[in-house]
Amino acid sequence: MGIKRQKQAKKTLSFYKYNFSFREPFQILFDGTFCQAALKNKIQIKEQMPKYLMGEVQLCTTNCALKELETLGKELYGAKIILQRFQVRRCPHFKDPVPASECLLSMLGETNPHHYFVATQDHTLTAGLKKIPGVPLLYIILNTMVLDKPCQTSLDHVKAVQLGELVSPAQQQSIHSLKEEQGISQKDGERRGKKRKRKRSNPNPLSCLKKRKGGPTPPKKTDQGEKRKRIRRKKRRTEGGDMSAPAVTNK
């Protein structure tokens, strides 16, 4: 059963690596529900997660997730201790914390540009994650960690890219890097797209001249009846046999 689960995880990872440019170290966002489930099932996240994903990982969370565990009381104190050991990523709700599910969704945006994995047991958050293409989902079931199969949104996105309807994130990044290398910014492209207004100039002085009456003069015609005289030159021989200058005769 463990070998089969590992093969399925490897297949899912290769899908995200090839189609959404996921690279090591894998960044994983955790909430309190996953840490609480790991504590109950005696799962060592720091030790088992790199082995399961077969690569280096970065365990991350947000300030909103920590604040949520603090408000829930002593029942989730153990989950809070686990979550505090992870890296805290900056979220836009520093002054006004929001629920962890809302915060994690805002960290992903519409396309998950930072290539986050999400580890959660929250069904509401899971439903929202499946609407975003390219988000690997981790959860705990039967005392084991499971990497969920790609959702239908991710499959539809990959199909649209293959048909040429969309540009993949990797292609977008390469285009952006090429523009930066060439020194082309978005403002420059907007300037090139706008048409320049031509300034009014003075009229051409040659176009202001009056036209001649009568039109162009036709070429002179020669009489076909007149024949040109051919000139023949004859060479005379002298008494010594030498050739003298030719004499011109008209015919």
UniProtKB/TrEMBL annotation:
Q: Where is the composition biased (Basic and acidic residues)?
A: 177-191
- Per the record, where are the segments of Basic residues compositional bias? 192-201, 227-237
Main role?
Answer: Involved in rRNA-processing and ribosome biogenesis.
Give the coiled coil ranges.
none
Gene Ontology CC terms, in alphabetical order: small-subunit processome
Matching Pfam families:
Fcf1
Compartment annotation = Nucleus, Nucleolus
Keyword annotations of the record:
Nucleus, Ribosome biogenesis, rRNA processing
Recorded protein name is rRNA-processing protein UTP23 homolog
By its UniProt entry, which InterPro entries does this protein fall under? Fcf1/UTP23, PIN-like_dom_sf
Q: What is the lineage of its organism?
A: Eukaryota, Metazoa, Chordata, Craniata, Vertebrata
